[in-house]
Specification:
Layout (H helix, E strand, L loop, with lengths): L7 H30 L19 E8 L10 E5 L2 H11 L19 E7 L11 E7 L3 E7 L12 E9 L4 E6 L2
Parallel strand pairs: 5-7
Antiparallel strand pairs: 1-6, 2-3, 3-6, 4-5
């Protein structure tokens, strides 16, 4: 006669192993389905375009030290023409030749549009304005920004800025400040 295992924990361990395996399978399936169901957008690119439509290209970042004499208020600009760009460059360079630090100043506005973020004039140095994320939707582009550097205590009037360009589109550009 065979000896039966009367230890109830042995069968409980088996049940526990099956339950753990089932949970892993269910969670794996849920993660797969969640990733599969994420909405993606198909961006249309003309055959002559060599630039992906979701490309953010850095132009310049820094601080204006004219104590507001440049005449630029706290604002987020979308620049679509050479005349608008030239006017902004003139203001930026009115006190110091700030644009000499830019990656480029000759923008091809038939291919690109520029956005420029300007913080208010600050009463102390050490401030920055930074792009932390760009979210590309089918009908809009959201530019998320914040101040990664929030002052050093130096007594100097300054105005942080950030300038970048993206391929031309008819999408609305939405600026979102993240604290």
């Amino acid at each position: 006669m065979e000896k039966q295992n009367k230890n109830p924990f042995t069968s409980m361990r088996s049940i526990r192993k099956v339950a753990d395996a089932t949970l892993c399978l269910v969670f794996g399936l849920l993660i797969f389905l969640a990733m599969k169901s994420c909405e993606t957008y198909d961006f249309q690119v003309n055959e002559n375009d060599t630039i992906p439509p979701d490309t953010l290209i850095f132009v310049g970042k820094g601080t204006l030290y004219g104590a507001g004499d440049e005449g630029i208020t706290k604002e987020n600009l979308v620049i679509k023409t050479k005349n608008e760009w030239d006017s902004l460059i003139t203001k930026i360079n009115s006190v110091n030749n700030e644009s000499s630090h830019f990656e480029e100043t000759d923008i091809n506005f038939s291919k690109y549009q520029v956005f420029a973020l300007f913080e208010e004039v600050k009463g102390s140095g050490g401030w920055s304005i930074d792009i932390t994320n760009v979210i590309w939707y089918a009908d809009s582009t959201v530019v998320v920004y914040t101040n990664l550097e929030r002052g050093s205590g130096l007594s100097v009037m300054c105005q942080p800025y950030y300038i970048a360009k993206i391929p031309v589109s008819n999408k609305e550009i939405i600026f979102y400040y993240e604290n």
